[in-house]
Amino acid sequence: xxxxxxxxxxxxxxxxxAANLLADAGWEVLVLEAAxxxxxAVRTAExxxxxxxxxxxxxxxxxxAASPVLAGxxxxxxxxxxxxxxxxxAHVLPDDRAVLLSRDVDRTAASVExxxxxxxxxxxxxxxxxxxxRDHLLEALLRPFPPVRAGAxxxxxxxxxxxxxxxxAAVQPVRAFGGERFxxxxxxxxxxxxxxxxxxxxxxxxxxxxxxxxxxxxxxxxFPVPEGGAGELTGALVRRxxxxxxxxxxxxxxVVANGRALGVRDAAGGFVRARKAVLADVxxxxxxxxxxGPAHLPARLVADLARVHWxxxxxxxxxxxxxxxxxxxxxxxxxxTVHLGGDLNGLSATRAEIAAGKLPxxxxxxxxxxxxxxxxxxxxxxxxxxxxxHVPRGEKWSADRVRRRADRVEQLVEQHAPGFRALIxxxxxQGPAELExxxxxxxxxxxxxxxxxxxxxxVFRPVPGLGRADTPVDRLFLAGAAAHPGGGVHGAAGxxxxxxxxxxxxxxxDAYRLxxxxxxxxxxx
Length: 525
Fold this sequence. Notes:
The chain has about 525 residues and is of the alpha/beta class. Among the domains are: about 1-35 and about 250-310 and about 450-525, FAD/NAD(P)-binding domain, CATH 3.50.50; about 45-65 and about 85-100 and about 310-445, Guanine Nucleotide Dissociation Inhibitor, domain 2 (2-Layer Sandwich). It is built from 19 helices and 18 strands. Strands 1, 2, 9, 10, 11, 12 and 18 form a seven-stranded mixed sheet that branches. Strands 7-6-14-15-16-13-17 form a seven-stranded mixed sheet, sandwiched between helices. A two-stranded antiparallel ribbon has the order 3-4. Helix 1 packs parallel to helix 11 (about 230-240) and helix 4 (about 105-115) crosses helix 5 (about 120-140). The two termini are about 35 Å apart.
């Protein structure tokens, strides 16, 4: 039997961040991971061809580069090196015009200006606003809800009137936000394309918040990648950890008695006693329904879990290319990230088709040129690239259907880069089932562990609750992207869970427990 202060279920980035913070506090920590290697959705392998390092899931990390959580871990001392493409992002329109996002704000402004007179100055003003609120806003977004201290900082930076205006902007659809500010298509397209990294289209409430946040992060820190592959971020977290990580050891049950988590049993029946806390970097339904069990939970929570709203399913294609992608649009050639699939109305059509359960006729593509961003990813003169596209959930995806969707993805790239297909020397396609089989947290091919829509954010994530890591089971904490603040590789959900566990076991631990119990009683009685 293992006997530790804390057991962390899942060695994704949130689980590893939580483990690091607890170990830094002097706790003895054991991380249990079902997969053969750590990392969750932050892993790299030679997938397509020898010498080509392909990120299996996530790849670019603007939130990671800006995250105060990851900054506090000083991962550079443990081997993490960020690399950047010459340009951040290009959104290519059907007629091969393109709008560019660059870390040079003047270059971005000039590109946006080419679509509408005066729009460059509007972009500059938006970036100036970002610089005023950046630190307070990131703190507010990544800390548990309500963010009292960060909210006060935002109010101090903006004043109450402008803070209300910022809140109004955040809940707007991108189309409305962009239409109030820009005269041309360039600025709104950058915002809308970045919002489409979630499951929010140009006409969805709250899309402006995600589109603006990712656009401003791209302007500020770029869309950096870890040198050598996404797995190097995981490697730095593991190397830093003063604790154990055991892979290939799935957890079968959280052991609960008298309303308190005592530890876990692994799939082989072995018991790990957790003297202080159990933290779970897994989807919320998996934690509550599978690992804990309805018998230990309030009936209203179990009912709420049936209404968890997942984000879209995903089809991803990885390529080994014999040369750089020959884009017609010059702006795309040096961009680490490329968006394809239409203008604002085209993106709206894509979202509407997915919402109606239909396969989009023209898919929206998020494409990564990894060797352009990091030359270590493939042999000199070649390119390691990938693209993913969202598809409706709940569909049957045979191998042939996944292949045909990948062919359609390649057709769209070929339209904007004639000769692209002739460069392909290796290809691997993952549909929703393949993504989930490689990472159990990508339920049905969802990459954000739940929708980004307003009804499942803040105190509604993953179900109506506290917007915190605490659960109705004492000393059990939800530490993954299912919890606030949600998806993205920033480590905040893991950090929030670790802080909650430390508070529960601190000098005022009994008062903390009683307060949380009282709040859960109000929510679920």
